[in-house]
Amino acid sequence: MHFHYILPFLSTLIPTITSSPIEARTCPSTNIITDGGFESGVTPPTSGGNSWTVIKFFGSSTYSLTSPGSTNFGGRYAFTAALNTDLSSDMSGETLVQPMRTCAGRNYSIAADFRFSESQNNACSISVQYPFKNTIGSVTTGSGTPGISPGLWYQTGSTFQAVSSADTLSFVFRCDGSGVRNRISLDNVVVKPYAGNAF
User: How many distinct helices (H) and strands (E) make up the chain?
Assistant: First the structure.
């Protein structure tokens, strides 16, 4: 005699978990600088700027938008720092900054046009500063650098790897010495994703 056992079907109710989708942050594939050519015609403020802000003044220094802009790509305006060392200080300078919409871990390239009005025996300089790991990277060009002539436009730049979603790009304008005067202009600032090695 054979007995047949029928096993009951066991089922487990698995709760359905729902969640709101997480919005992925979009990393721009083009230039992430706002008003890099200063073509808005808006002179950067010393605080609360929507794009550029001028900070860290020392000695006798002023700034303005000047015309025309760089001859490399045309344009109506350029940013110009007017520096003057006098008897009260042997240093003069200021810093132009903009927070960038970066994506941490992504590589970027920086390019910008600059011009000195005077060579001043290399007493003046422009530095581009950007994130570099846990510190600040910098590329500095002096007014007396071989191959740099007063009144002509040149290009500076570098590459970096972003460390946050709002890294800061800075341009430092500086003169040192007694009785030094120079007008250092900046135009056509571009920061965009870079496919190569940033270090």
Answer: 0, 10
pTM of the model: 0.86
Strand pairing partners for 124?
Answer: 175
Strands of 70-119, DSSP E: 78-84, 91-99, 107-116
Place of tokens 């808006």: 42
User: Closest Cα partner for 167 from 134, 126, 125?
Assistant: 134
Q: How many CA atoms lie within 13 A of 142 on its CB side?
A: 8
Q: Which of 171, 75, 177, 76 is nearest to 122 (CA)?
A: 177
pLDDT digits (tens, 9 = 90+) for 124-139: 999 999 999 889 999 9
Determine phi and psi for 49, rounding to 5 degrees.
-75, 150
**Rounded distance between C-alpha atoms, residue 47 and residue 54, angstroms:** 7
Conformational region of residue 41, where left means phi above 0, alpha means psi within -120 to 50, and beta covers everything else: left
Q: In this structure, what DSSP letter does residue 86 have? A: B
| CB distance 133 to 163 below 8 Å | yes
Please give the span between the terminal C-alpha atoms of the chain, in angstroms, as a whole number.
Answer: 83
**Could you give the CA distance from residue 124 to residue 177 in angstroms, rounded to a whole number?**
9
